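Example 3.2
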Amino acid sequence: QVQLVESGGGLVQAGDSLRLSCAASRMPFSSYAMGWFRQAPGKKRDFVAGIRWSDGTTNYAGSVKGRFAISRDNANNTVYLRMTSLKPEDTAVYYCAAGPVGAYAYWGQGTQVTVSS
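Structure, written as tokens:
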């Protein structure tokens, strides 16, 4: 089992920046990836960004590319999501996930990000 704990959400204004953190209890395999997803009210959960634990390869949803940056701290089993130039449409509950690449098996409880206009 892998427990994930997110932190860093909050209420910000459009154009502001925010950094989310996700601490994993352990990273059982270097082949794993970690990622961030988000779910706005009434909408499905969407992929935001992902990072391969072994080599740090990243990928992003088109809507956040150039504004968000995912990074990792291998020593502390922590992944970060740096969000800049935030827009009201970025408002959502953000979830951290971990697991085999393309098959996330573990999820955090979510952290709310609200961007006011």
